[in-house]
Specification:
Peroxisomal Thiolase, Chain A, domain 1, 11-stranded mixed β-sheet, 3-stranded mixed β-sheet, Thiolase-like, Ketoacyl_synth_N, transferase, EC 2.3.1.41, Beta-ketoacyl_synthase
Amino acid sequence: MPSRIPPLAITAYTATSALGRGRRAHVEALRDRRTGLRDNDFTAAPLACAIGRVDGLEAQPLPAEFAEHDSRNNRLAWLGLGADGFLDAARAAIDRHGASRVALLVGTSTASIGSTEQAHLALEDGRFAPAFASPALHTPHSLGLFLEHVLGTRGPCSTIATACSSSAKIFAQGERLIRLGIVDAAILAGVDTLCGSVLFGFNALELVAPEACRPFDVARRGISIGEAAGFALLERDGAGAPRLLGYGESSDAHHMSTPHPHGLGARLALADAFARAGVGAHEVDYVNLHGTATVKNDEVEAALLADSFPPTTRASSTKGWTGHTLGAAGILEAVITLLAIEHGFVPGTLNTDTRDPLCDARLALANEERAVRVALSNSFGFGGNNCTLAFGCAA
């Protein structure tokens, strides 16, 4: 088992999703039980499903100095950077520590593949049209290149693309870089936008529900796909800031798209998160579940919840609000977990009426007002890429 690690301060954090821009918009939507999901109006070809779409991205190109990076994904990143003063906080951290002492770690599963799709649909004499000719767009590291240009960081810059766990794992990578003395701070970014290949690809796998997703419901029929941008700033110290207490990562490699039937990888990630955080299951007030509303994911995670936590633990999936934001899901749900700690409430599980028999009363359906001191966020991705994050209230 890993050793306990010193907690790190999360000195700034924000999210932009179908619920709105910034922390306040998310808290208000969660408290009002107002979903961001709507009927699919994104794809030109018909696809009956619900999506979590951020409005206005098509009409807001990047500023001229960043034109070579212009894509839907980077536009969402730019929009999200400005929420809650995060861009100013990130630049202030770079000034404090020095550009070479700040890491930039990004999580995304699609990067700017939407622009590559558009480029292939608008070929000119078999070549990409000038509007799509920038090499910076057609790479998995598109998001990192763009944010490095915006922020001016000169420390380690990497992209993690492990499907749905991508932007949870950047918390773990940031902690290691700081603990090992390689950097003094880490800017974490998770961004994924809607695109045709993702929507139709998941539909081809028969994983997309025709209506808004219903996590852990006995009649659940699959996921609703969304888009989001989330950011966090990790530093050693920060008065009044919530803490990253620990994390656990695993890769069970059981199947390309199906979790291990006994959740072995998920259980290992949970155990390692407990060990690094130095907490036990009885100390956890809230668990933000991965809860995709697919049959197998929810089945495995429900068993993990029942086997690992006392009856007093509260848990929920928040994908009924935002949809499954893929590579951005980890950091979006980390932000929601931090909001639960900050505001003292447990968001329920939206759209779910009848719990699957594998679930029990630990799964909160309605919102609950209660103190949340220690909370977990699960992100379990394709290929068995699992990550559990442990957060705590300000020291």
